[in-house]
Specification:
50% of the residues lie in helices and 17% in strands. With 285 residues, it is of the alpha+beta class.
Amino acid sequence: MVKNVVFIVAVLSLASCSFFKKKKTQDADLVARVNEEYLYASDLVNITKGLTGPDSIAALKSYAESWTRKKLLLQKASDNIEEDDLGINKKVEDYRESLLLYEYEKALINQKLDTNFTAQEMNTWYDKMKGDFTLQSDVYRVQFIRIDKNTEDIAKAKKWILNPKDEEESEKMKAFVKEFSQGYSLDNGLWYEKEKLIKNFPVNEADVASLAASRKFKEFKEGDMLWFIRVSEVLRKDDPSPLEFISDKIEKAIMEKRKMAMIEKIYNKIYQDGLSDKSLEIYIK
């Protein structure tokens, strides 16, 4: 152990109620020292939170060893390197300023940034970005209904699902599905790659090809469940990805642009306020 490092660790007996019980008052929670720098247990409440007895001591000792190593290294570096020769003071100040601005911008973003997205905004950005994100495999837009085969009036519902005669029967089908199904996706449906489609539904590759060709609901059985599945659209490999596949990337792009615009607007206002109240002047004409 380096002689400049002094660890002060109390030994707890089972009956002891205070970690530093036998220390002098002014050094009651002293943990470690490196020359004239001191580390106290009261500064390490987060390290020992929830710990008692030997566990608390072990945590303090581990932190103290790390702290003293770092302090010794810093002191050795300070003794052997002239800070001004390397511009360290300037670098430290530059870093401090950058950190301060970063925290200020983060606070502004948390307080003021609008995080809501409209459908129109998403579609506009999708039109701009879709060419940059092409599909790596075919994808299928799927509508599906999952329903117990013993459901009342299931025979009638099958006709409405598989071969509706008119809009009225289509509306009856939707009402029936909403009330009795175990899960469904109608209207726009959901996009699936072939592997995920086969994994999530009781279909095989031949079924997928048949669904893609027919574009109509077909019935599939799985135990006591009936599945009615329809592929309404197919996008091929190298086509632009559908909006749902890249919505997270679009949202991120929108947020980044909003952040930059908001920060620039606020900083410009601060600058203009400084000009107005004459808290700044530029002497170069």
